[in-house]
Amino acid sequence: MKQLSGKRVLLGVCGSIAAYKSAELVRDLRDAGAEVRVVMTEAATEFITPLTLQALSGHPVRTGLVDTAAEAAMGHIELARWPDAVLVAPASADFIARLAQGRADDLLAALCLATRAPVALAPAMNAGMWENAATRANIDKLTRQGVAFFGPVSGALACGEQGPGRMIDNRTIIDKLAALFPSAALQGVAVLVSAGPTREAIDPVRYLSNRSSGKMGFAVAAAAVEAGAQVTLISGPVALPTPERVKRVDVISAAQMYRAVMEHAPAHQIFVAAAAVADFVPQAFAQQKLKKEKFSAEDGFVLRLKQSPDILAELAGREQRPFLVGFAAETESVEQNGCAKLQRKKLDMIAINDVSEGRGFDRDENELLVLWPGGRARLELAGKGRLARELMGLIADRYREHYEKNTT
Ligand code: C5P
After folding, report:
1. What is the CB neighbour count within 10 angstroms for residue 32?
2. Radius of gyration of the chain from its Cα atoms, rounded to whole angstroms
3. What values do phi and psi take at 212, rounded to 5?
4. Which terminus of the chain is less hemmed in, N or C, by CB atoms within 10 Å?
């Protein structure tokens, strides 16, 4: 499932040097599955031609409010009813001011006034304009009215200055736009997610852990919320904020992760195990800090480890088990190892991560190979947010199939 599959996006383009980025944005929106129609302000046509955006969107581009031929094809009120979202990118300071005043003096402003769809603005302007009290007041007013602002970010501006006013990148615009649409794919379903590493204490100051940042699991939890699920997130020690509307349970060790998952699993229909749980933990915990003087240079320090229980495999063996999705980080024979794990652990789905050569861990981007009995999907390199949404789409489809099979 693409991020904006089947969504209708009306893209407004204002007069700003960032208007050249709108051409790529039209293509990226379409690649994300959206149908796009473009409306430009008169000033925007000085920066980029309507013909370019017409060719890329596959639809005529509208500019004027009073255009008899265009009105005959689709009247402006009809056009205001058409989209699932209105995105204005770039949005200029002047356009924001006109919108704050509720004006309808050009087609784009009139559409924003008439539409009942959510309106999002991606501002682009000089830092002085962005920081000006008049612009701040306009933004506050529009925010209170429910208009969403995507960016801007700080950086080099076309005017030669540095500061806030740069339009955010297309991928972030699309992520934020997708988040405006609550999907109902997992409405009423309770999803349990585990994330992050575990820490296994050796003595009061030392521990064994791994490189998991928790980013993928947290993104999965956020994507499940977006899909309408009730979400509980069991997290190992990570430095990440809790996603909105997620119930978070913090744990440190594999033993605590085991207890928390076993306690919460019965109340959830889906369990996504994204945590990198320690497979081996110290056999004994030293109550006092181990002194290096106690160990000889020749013999070194031998730490005995014992195997920790496999949470997923144990859940899989239960009669009443949630739909189980495992993660596998592999450095070699990625597909074969992942496939063997799917079967050995009796999982409903596995997301395999190639972590050879430093890939996967603690990165913002990732790619996944997803396998389930009888099927597979490759999720191409993308931000973890987008990837998590795609994975949740696959999980929702498989879960529905599984659920329908078991209830008919
Ligand atoms: O066998 P491996 O550790 O590679 O399997 C990874 C999957 O198993 C992940 O989904 C992880 O959360 C889960 N796991 C577990 N309990 C363990 C170790 C791994 O649930 N003790």
Report:
1. 21
2. 26
3. -65, 135
4. C
| The Cα angle at residue 228 between residues 34 and 121, in degrees rounded to 5 | 45
Return d(Cα 391, Cα 128) in angstroms, integer: 42
Quickly count: other Cβ atoms within 10 Å of residue 24's Cβ: 12
Pocket around ligand 1: residues whose beta carbon is below 6 Å from it? 194, 254, 273, 275, 277, 279, 308, 310-312, 326-328, 341
Mean pLDDT of 153-174: 88
The residue annotated as part of the active site, out of 14, 112, 159, 339, is 159
**Other C-beta atoms within 10 Å of 144: how many?**
8
- Give the integer Cα–Cα distance in Å for 18 and 38: 15
Q: What is the mean pLDDT of the chain?
A: 91
Q: What own/partner pairs with CB < 8 Å and gap ≥ 24 does 59-63 have?
A: 62/37, 62/38, 62/107, 63/39, 63/107
Alpha-helical segments (H) within 317-382:
334-344
Within 10 Å of residue 317's Cβ, how many Cβ atoms? 11
Share in percent of the chain as helix, strand, coil (round to 5): 40, 25, 40
Instruction: Please report the pLDDT score of residue 152 as a whole number.
Output: 95
149, containing H or E segment:
strand 148-149
Q: Which atom of ligand 1 is nearest to the CA of 261?
A: 20
**In this predicted model, what pLDDT tens digit does every residue of 70-120 receive, in sequence order?**
776 678 888 999 998 999 999 999 999 999 999 999 999 999 999 988 999
Query: Which ligand 1 atom is nearest residue 329's CA?
Result: 4
DSSP state, 133?
A: H
Q: Tell me which residue of 204, 376, 188, 396 sits closest to 285, measured CA to CA.
A: 204
Determine the distance from the C-alpha atom of residue 333 to the mean position of all C-alpha atoms in its chain, rounded to a whole number: 28
Instruction: Give CATH superfamily name and number for 190-280+298-406.
Output: CoaB-like (3.40.50.10300)
Q: Answer yes or no: 339 catalytic.
A: no
Instruction: Please report the DSSP string for 154-207 in residue order.
Output: EEE-TTS-EEEEEPPPHHHHHHHHHHTS---TTTT-EEEEEESB--EESSSS-E
The answer to pTM > 0.90 is no
Homologous superfamily of 8-178:
Flavin prenyltransferase-like (3.40.50.1950)
Domain boundaries, the chain: 8-178, 190-280+298-406
Of 88-97, 250-259, 354-363, the least confident: 354-363
Mean pLDDT of 190-195: 98
